[in-house]
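User: I'm writing a tutorial on reading structure tokens. Could you give me a worked example: one chain, its sequence, then its tokens, then a sentence or two explaining what the tokens reveal?
Assistant: Sure. Here is the example chain.
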Amino acid sequence: MKVVGRWMYLYRAVDQYGQVIDVLISPKRDVAATRRFFIRALGHARCPTEVATDQAPTYPRVIEKLIPAACHVAEQSASLSLISHRPCPRGSGYLSQAIPSLLRSNSGR
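And here are its predicted structure tokens:
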């Protein structure tokens, strides 16, 4: 998704009931960003037994280190999963409107 003209990746953790646990927006989709996301998400929730993600190659290494007991399921489209990563659809409401304003207000810091 584009935020203030720059491409960003939206990581989103969702529990089995569809409740959002945590959200992370990152300019890169690498191992460091994936690790940062999982550490933050695991700080807000219990340790999951199953983790469904898309097929990004960074997930297996991070999941094996941080959540070795969890079963990792790589799906084409991980929509309602315990911990998932999905692109934000264009014009999706709150996030597409709130994120650019948050970034603009914090850019002077």
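What the tokens reveal: The two ends are 24 Å apart (CA to CA). The chain has one domain: 2-106.
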